[in-house]
Specification:
Elements lengths: L1 E2 L8 E8 L2 E8 L15 E8 L2 E2 L5 E2 L2 E3 L7 H11 L7 E3 L5 H13 L4 E5 H10 L26 E4 L3 E4 L5 E6 L9 E5 L4 E5 L20 H12 L3 H11 L6 E4 L9 H17 L3 E6 L5 H14 L4 E6 L5 H10 L2 E5 L9 H13 L6 E7 L4 H12 L9 E4 L4 H29 L6 H4 L1 H6 L4 E2 L1 E7 L6 E7 L2 E5 L4 E7 L13 E6 L6 H8 L14 E3 L5 E3 L4 E13 L2 E13 L8 E2 L8
Parallel strand pairs: 7-8, 8-9, 9-10, 14-15, 16-17, 16-18, 18-19, 19-20
Antiparallel strand pairs: 1-2, 2-3, 3-4, 4-7, 5-6, 11-12, 12-13, 13-14, 21-31, 22-23, 22-26, 24-25, 25-30, 26-29, 27-28, 29-30
Helix pairs in contact: 5-6, 7-11, 8-9
Length: about 625
């Protein structure tokens, strides 16, 4: 393993030799690179590119070097420095572009400037995106220094080898690359690459995880399971049906190792990972309620907002039907609008207008949409937000009912904005679930509900727990996130080290702040003094609201909030997170604590049924 000479402490590129004539160029950053929800665990990131040497194929045909899945502009300096050591300036480099976004296009332009004989390989949708994005320059936020007058000109778009369907391409030596278009709403230009002789699947965004790791492959299946599940929940769950279709296409491949675009490779347990992907998508497939999420995104900001909203919705058990309006057929859009229980539409503002596909989708919604179903508008803009004003005005004039106030974000969303967007999605999912339960009660015949009459559930309700308030903060300064919830499913879990278990419903906003290594405080409430804290933390908070506003707080040694009225407090660090039906079971090691009232007794939560709180 070698490191690029242009490497820095924050971002560097290492070289991992895999086979003769094949290396992995891995970009590493120990710090969070971006604010999108999938980076929320804050374990850094890694990005994988693969370089096949040039030479002659098995049939004697001359083959140029082939770069598969180039890194983004975030790693441009060390990545280009490494390539320049390995490629001659006149090399006829071919680049397989498995993922197209403005960040990736920025790097491709630098490749084209250094290697004029460059050729790109992309799917049909990927080629369209490359053509659209190649000459675009992302607008600078307010207050940024003016661009240099003598900015380098953008090189011409290289020729593109368009892959319209699954196809094979010979490489140097005995290598042969199979290219597999794998479009999804979030990544319409996705192109997977499979090298047949080694069984190496270069899967791009599929099976990825954001963490900084120098090891080529993960130690075992469980070592990075939480990271891969988190990535799935953030980006894959809202399009589970399309992901399932991609998995079906991979069943026939003689895979030995999966190397995703982010994180270590999966060598020993890739079969179980494919099965997990299917299992993780099952709740979305079984969901009776659905939300159609229509969007287009120019620079990735509107897509990031869509991801956050979708994550919140999916966490409530409501299916999300993500539709990229630029690449979805009209009949798919129409079917989703007619069959869903709510419609959300998101757009950037480009030149003072909404993109044409969004205007077309709006027209379909106005014509075919059910006015009894809620709608929502979201998006980003640079200097003005005419597109969002258009969407809001047309839908209001059309008699639609809004599920939430339009989300209008100037330039890029920050972590607090994304958290508020996620909570907005959670609130919408809960609203739809509540409406469904209300309708079921109306249609049900008289008599007690099964949950009240079932003797097993009645017995389960007699399992009591202490009334507590779980509080947590994560991050610092403007990027700090916080959350809180009333918890009664709490138990001591171990003596040595001292540990606790807390069950957290999947639709709780705070659950995204309770992953491995995260800190929290468990405030145990006192009998007779529980009313005030309960009233504070059981109230419905608007998305993004500060749960601790107006409260007198102390701080634990790790800076976690302590309620002044608590009987006792425990500071704990999450060590395990396990999926238990509709809850996450959080296991944590207690690191600090104190008894604030030695004469008080613990408030307990008594229930009549184990079917609800």
């Amino acid at each position: 393993m070698t490191s690029s000479p242009a490497a820095s402490a924050d971002r560097r590129v290492i070289v991992l030799p895999l086979e003769p004539g094949l290396v992995c160029l891995r970009g590493l950053s120990p710090k969070r690179l971006r604010f999108e929800v999938e980076y929320g665990l804050e374990r850094g990131t890694s990005a994988n590119a693969f370089l096949f040497e040039g030479g002659s194929s098995a049939s004697g045909q001359a083959v140029p070097p082939v770069l598969v899945h180039p890194l983004g502009a975030s790693f441009a300096a060390p990545f280009l420095a490494e390539l320049e050591q390995r490629l001659a300036p006149d090399a006829a480099l071919k680049v397989v572009v498995g993922h197209v976004n403005p960040n990736r296009v920025e790097l491709l332009r630098e490749l084209a400037a250094r290697w004029p004989a460059l050729m790109l390989v992309a799917s049909n949708a990927g080629a369209r995106l490359l053509e659209d994005l190649w000459s675009q320059v992302k607008p600078a936020p307010p207050g940024s220094p003016p661009a240099a007058e003598a900015a380098e000109p953008i090189p011409p778009l290289p020729p593109i080898d368009v892959v319209k369907q699954e196809v094979g391409r010979p490489l140097a030596g005995s290598y042969r690359l199979q290219l597999i278009p794998a479009p999804t709403p979030r990544w319409p230009g996705a192109l997977l690459a499979f090298e047949e002789s080694t069984g190496l699947l270069m899967s791009g965004k599929f099976f990825a995880a954001h963490l900084c790791s120098e090891a080529w492959a993960e130690a075992n299946r469980s070592s990075n399971e939480e990271d891969r599940r988190y990535f799935y929940d953030c980006l894959m769950a809202p399009m589970a049906r399309q992901v399932e279709s991609v998995l079906d296409r991979l069943d026939d491949l003689a895979i030995r190792t999966i190397a995703p675009g982010h994180g270590p490779a999966i060598a020993e347990s890739w079969r179980s990972l494919l099965l997990e992907y299917r299992r993780w998508g099952e709740p979305q497939e079984r969901a009776r309620l659905s939300v159609a999420l229509l969007f287009a995104s120019a620079y990735g900001n509107t897509a990031a907002i869509a991801d956050a909203i979708a994550r919140g919705i999916a966490g409530t058990g409501v299916r999300v039907e993500s539709i990229n309006c630029e690449f979805s057929p009209a009949d798919h859009l129409l079917e989703a609008i007619r069959s869903c229980d709510a419609v959300l539409i998101g757009s950037p503002t480009l030149g003072g207008h909404a993109p044409t596909p969004i205007v077309s989708a709006l027209g379909t919604l106005l014509t075919e949409g059910d006015r009894t179903k809620p709608v929502g508008v979201f998006g980003s803009f640079g200097w003005s937000g005419e597109a969002l004003d258009l969407l809001e005005g047309k839908l209001r004039d059309g008699g639609f009912r809004f599920a939430f106030a339009p989300i209008k974000v100037k330039f890029s969303p920050d972590p607090q904005t994304l958290k508020a967007c996620e909570e907005t999605g959670t609130a919408l999912g809960r609203q739809l679930q509540a409406g469904q339960r209300k309708a079921q009660r109306r249609s049900a015949s008289g008599g007690l509900k099964e949950s009240r009459s079932n003797p097993a559930l009645q017995a389960l309700g007699r399992v009591v727990g202490p009334l507590c308030v779980l509080t947590t903060v994560k991050g610092e300064g403007e990027s700090q996130l916080s959350g809180a919830m009333v918890a009664s499913w709490v138990s001591q879990a171990s003596f040595n080290p001292p540990g606790v278990m807390v069950a957290v419903a999947k639709d709780r906003a705070v659950q995204t702040l309770l992953h491995g290594g995260d800190q929290f405080t468990l405030n145990v409430l006192a009998e007779g003094r529980e009313t005030g804290p309960m009233r504070q933390f059981l109230q419905p908070f608007p998305p993004g609201a500060n749960r601790f506003a107006g409260l007198e707080l102390e701080r634990s040694p790790k800076g976690q909030p302590i309620l002044a009225d608590a009987l006792a407090w425990l500071e704990a660090r999450v060590t395990q997170r396990m999926e238990c039906g509709d809850h996450w079971l959080i296991v944590a090691e207690v690191t600090h604590g104190a008894l604030l009232d030695a004469l008080g007794t613990t408030a307990m939560h008594q229930r009549r049924s184990g079917g609800n709180y």
